[in-house]
Amino acid sequence: MVVATQETHSLFLSTLTELCSPSSILPYPTALIFDVYGAHFIFPQAKEIVGPKIPTFMHVTQGASAMYTFFVPTEKYGFSDWEKTVERIYSDESLRAGRDRAQIIEAVALAKNGTDKLNGTVLRVPGVKEMYDYEREGYNIPMPPGVLSQMAVMANLADETDGIIISSSYAIEGPVLEACKEFKKVYPVGIQIAPFGWEKGAVIQDEKIRGYLDKQKENSVLYISFGSHFFPINTPDYIDALLTTLSDLDFPFIFALGGYMAANGLPAETISRINSSGKSFIHNGWIDQRGILQHPSTGWFLTHAGWNSISESLAQGVPLICWPMSHGDQFMNAALLSTRDEPLAFELLQIRMNEARGPPRRGGGPIKGDLEDVKKEMRDVLTKANGAEGAVLRKNAENLAVELREERYGRADVVIRELAEI
Question: 207 vs 210, 214, 249, 283, 419, CA distance in Å?
Fold first, then answer.
């Protein structure tokens, strides 16, 4: 097999040409695997080099519930047929409204409902409770240019490759994986984390963090991290509300500020005040996340709902509190975990911004983003986490961790062996 990623397009094509030359002493490729981001741009050249008989795959490191949109057409609440929608709008002067094709593509990629607007279309993704289209979107951080057009290209790559290799698990989202089979050959290889991410009892090298956790009660600490690329920089008052609520509830926490957006996410005075209290700990830098999730004192993980963080947490049986903040998979991941038959997470709804605000189909009051509503919801969720409802979610997460280990050496291993034999 030969793997193409966005960062290695030129090298990939030159290597592929060398492999396929008559003078090559290396074995001819048996399959091509394309990274989900940007690889569609070299797909035609690669296929021309190897010929039509070599199978091609798209590799996805997100969950199937979020990717379902890219695999299915409009009538199934997806946008794999987005080009038809773009052409219909672009060819009608009144619908085009002075926009060029690129602008229409971005609007269609945002809506993902067969139109160029979020209009309250009800979405039905197997295994996830129904939601309105705007509940799947939104961003609490500046959106990088080109993200929406990139989503359209991802849909094209999914359509044109022979199969999808996806880092997903039947234990987490079996219904949607089954539904995907109607449209595409899908290879769920299980959640993908480093081998030591499956272990227990890892020794945390940072003495301050280890010393803090060792002093706390079992399952009592909330671990907070928004990952490598995210932080709610547009809503610092929401972060203040979180820290104040945790203090009021005497809820111990570790807050990791390792991502590039998080580096200056909190004032130095706030970090000093919280750390000097001895009740909680803020680490202004990278942190041993897997070690923290394996520590018996860690009871919850407040996360942006990225698939890697979710996978690492669930492998350890740690339930989550989701604060999604970016286009892509985060909002759907949060909905999946919080609305599945055996929920694994609480989802913060009032923190949503921009397109994601509005009445939630899942019930509850409208999402307005008022600071008082944010504070009320945070207190409610954090109180539930230490109550009977939280205990149910913890048990669900612990049971799932066992299933994930069984799948790793069972069903997922069978899929990986199937791919290895291609």
Answer: 5, 10, 26, 12, 43
